[in-house]
Amino acid sequence: MFAQCSQNSMSPLVLLVLLGCLLCPPAQASKSSEDIRCKCICPPYRNISGHIYNKNVSQKDCNCLHVVEPMPVPGNDVEAYCLLCECKYEERSTTTIKVIIIIYLSVVGALLLYMAFLVLVDPLIRKPDPYTQPLHNEEESEDARSLAAVPAPAGARANTVLERVEGAQQRWKRQVQEQRKTVFDRHKMLS
Are 158 and 146 in contact, with CB atoms under 8 Å apart? Predict the structure, then answer.
């Protein structure tokens, strides 16, 4: 119980630390180096294996000559090698990614707090409802009758969840059979 309480109280603390790290203002006013890049995919050429090159350059400099460093081919083969390479300029918004992560963590944190509330506080607040109590007692007595009809294996608990579900299923099947019987009887009476 204590471990569960301390775990629930630590999750909001971890969430706050993560939010603080994500919300730290960036050091640069312009786009950070992670937001833009030029990616060149160069296939195998002669005895050189294929390679992927990434570099933070502007969109106008996104070509093989500016991105592929060091150039794997000698000077007279550079143009032929660069014609084979496919370079793409990529841009992303790390701010948007951070905001989405913050929203996601906030929702998860809220759900964890709600779960902690339900586990710890809700049973203390709820009072037994006098109207629903007889209904529960009636269901339990029907469960006991259905369990008494089916012999339980030796050493098994008589009140397991599986047995309750089986008992409820049997009651439901009996009710459906009775409903079918009364519907067919009424249909015969009317015709």
Answer: no
Helices and strands (H, E) in the chain, number of each type: 7, 3
User: Could you tell me which residues are beta bridge partners of residue 89?
Assistant: 38
State the pLDDT at residue 3.
44
Q: How far apart are CA 93 and CA 50, in angstroms?
A: 29
Give the separation between CA 163 and CA 147, rounded to whole angstroms. 8
Return the residue matching tokens 């469960």.
143
- Write the pLDDT tens digit of every residue in 79-104: 999 999 999 999 988 889 999 999 99
Please tell me the distance from the alpha carbon of residue 103 to that of residue 22, in angstroms, as a whole number.
Answer: 12
Report residue 71 as tokens. Answer: 């150039």
Nearest partner of 69 among 88, 53, 82, judged by Cα: 53
Query: Which amino acid is residue 182, in one-letter code?
Result: T
Query: Exposed (0-12), middle (13-18) or buried (19+): which is 93, by Cβ within 10 Å?
Result: exposed
The token duo for 146 is 């259905």
Distances (CA, A) of 182 to 57, 173, 189: 80, 14, 10
